Amino acid sequence: MSLKDKLVKSAPARKGKAALNRVPRMIRRLQASDADYANHPPIIVNSLPKSGTHLMMQLADALPGVVNYGTFLAQTPSLTLKERSRAQIDARIAALAPGEVVGAHLYYSPETAAAFAKRNALHLFIWRDPRDVILSEAHYLAEMARFHAMHATFKKISDPEDRVKLALTGDGTSRYPNAQARVAPYLGWCDDPRAVVMRYERAIHPETQAGEVARVVAAFVKQGGKVADQATLTQSLVQAVAPKQSHTFHKGGVARWMQEMSTRNQALAKDIMPSLIALAQADPIPGQSTEEQA
CA–CA separation, 249 vs 155, rounded Å? Predict the structure, then answer.
């Protein structure tokens, strides 16, 4: 990605876009009827951070009749890492406009799921092997996330192995607890029957990608979205997937932790987040056995 594209997609630029779009977004919402929400469902692209948020956003933005105002719903904003209350999250969901695509990092709760349903929102949730999440997060916080509360801490650590260790153990505070505490609150969405749950590894694998995209298209139609031909749209959306266009893209890929995470940190990951690793192992990725993921 060019420097120009990185600047356009940087946090300040995205926040500026959202600020400029507040008025047209509000007007669209205030003028909307229940029928507008039924025929143009909002689309919430929710993710476990560092799991393919921008990949899923590319799919959502390519659906017909949608609009992206630059809105993002964060349970814990990166600048402060202070968790927003349920009332604050509910208010932000209620403020969605018909057909609006929004990115999100929102924890699972039955109340948030009910708020999605009340707005007739199509909820797309993407997740990834938590060991690759931690590997990606350590690099992101040290080298890319200048406006994140943990950037300065990670930037001071020169050894990549020590950065990954910090991402696993946390810093001993409630602001940045260990990996299990940070990741687990998102994964309840995997059992939500109204969510379209996608695993990042399948979303990029050539043998499974088209099938995963087809599920998104089918869910969009079921939710009320208007599509001329589902097969044609699916092909178009597959072509729209370009992970490297994300301003936060580093390496991508599948099971990078097997080559890039030290033996010490692999063992530490098993100690700190055993239930999350077990969840990933119970859902083998294409071309890799459960034993290879262990």
Answer: 18
Alpha-carbon 158 to chain mean position: 27
Q: What is the CB neighbour count within 10 angstroms for residue 2? A: 7
- Render 56-104 in DSSP notation, one character per residue: HHHHHHTSTT-B----EEESS-TTT-PPPPHHHHHHHHHTPPTTBEEEE
Tokens of 83: 């968790």
Burial class for 250, CB neighbours closer than 10 Å (0-12, 13-18, 19+): middle
10 Å Cβ neighbour count for 25? 19
Q: How far apart are CA 175 and CA 142, in angstroms?
A: 17
Q: How far apart are CA 200 and CA 220, in angstroms?
A: 19
pLDDT tens series, the chain, 294 aa: 444 444 445 555 566 677 788 899 999 999 999 999 999 999 999 999 999 999 999 999 999 999 999 999 999 999 999 999 999 999 999 999 999 999 999 999 999 999 999 999 999 999 999 999 999 999 999 999 899 999 999 999 999 999 999 999 999 999 999 999 999 999 999 999 999 999 999 999 999 999 999 999 999 999 999 999 999 999 999 988 765 554 444 455 688 899 999 999 999 999 999 999 999 999 877 766 544 455
Q: Hey, what's the torsion of the CAs at 108, 192, 105, 114, to 10 degrees?
A: -70
DSSP H helix total and E strand total for the chain: 18, 5
> Would residue 267 be called left, alpha or beta, if left means φ above 0 and alpha means ψ between -120 and 50 degrees?
alpha
Provide the residue count of the chain: 294
Q: Which helix (H) or strand (E) holds 43?
A: strand 43-47
Task: Return the closest-CA partner of residue 122 out of 228, 195, 69.
Answer: 195
